[in-house]
Amino acid sequence: MSGEQQILGFNRYGVWAIFRFEMARFLRTAGQSILTPVLTTSLYFVVFGSAIGGRMSEVGGVPYGAFIVPGMIMLTILAESMSNGSFGIYFPKFTGTIYELLSAPISPVETVLGYVGAAATKSVILGLIILTTSTFFVDLQIRHPIAMIAFLVLTSATFALLGFITGIWAKSFEQLSFIPMLVVTPLTFLGGAFYSIDMLPGAWRTITLFNPIVYIISAFRWCFYGTSDVGVEVSMLMTAIFFLGGLAAVSWIFKTGYRLKN
Description:
By secondary structure, the protein is an all-alpha fold. The protein contains 12 helices and 2 strands. The chain has one domain. A two-stranded antiparallel ribbon has the order 1-2. The longest helix is centred in the N-terminal third of the chain and has 27 residues.
């Protein structure tokens, strides 16, 4: 480590090495990584935009085809962030190279920055690809573009962090995919990704408010159209709480060595 790094107490080369390694894995399958969200987005517009949109032209004054765009982006972002974040740290555990990482001159904070930063970057790229693809099908307006980018990055980082925790917790590839596929994805579909929760009966709407994904999708949709199912301040606060909770969990994991050193 250089003298400058020792003074600053930050190993930027270590963070960059992890980040570059994880991004290289993404770039090796760049064609597939780009083609998949393009095809998926097109299919969503064919199924939801044409079939359902033909019967429901608008939701809250927004054309239905445009209304589902934030939900489609979040559906991909949440699942991909967790998958990328979990696989990045699980693979060294699986191959036994995790001990090389733990013994390297790099702190837990720097390790998390490398893995979570790469996973979040991949997700943001996919989100922007879906957004670009959507413009070929519907006319989009983004009333709060800066807030949209900021929230996209925050959400990607939050769920990449949760994925990182999942990767440490998992003991098998089955457990690795359990939470993203059987918890996050269903909650996203039930969290207003393709409908407004105001369309639900009173009792079901109350139950839906216990779904944390509702707040994330609602805040992201507000960035586009200025309308949301729940207060945008509450949504932002909930997302920040998820992120801080993830940081606290990671801090505890590295402090105790939970499923890292045994």
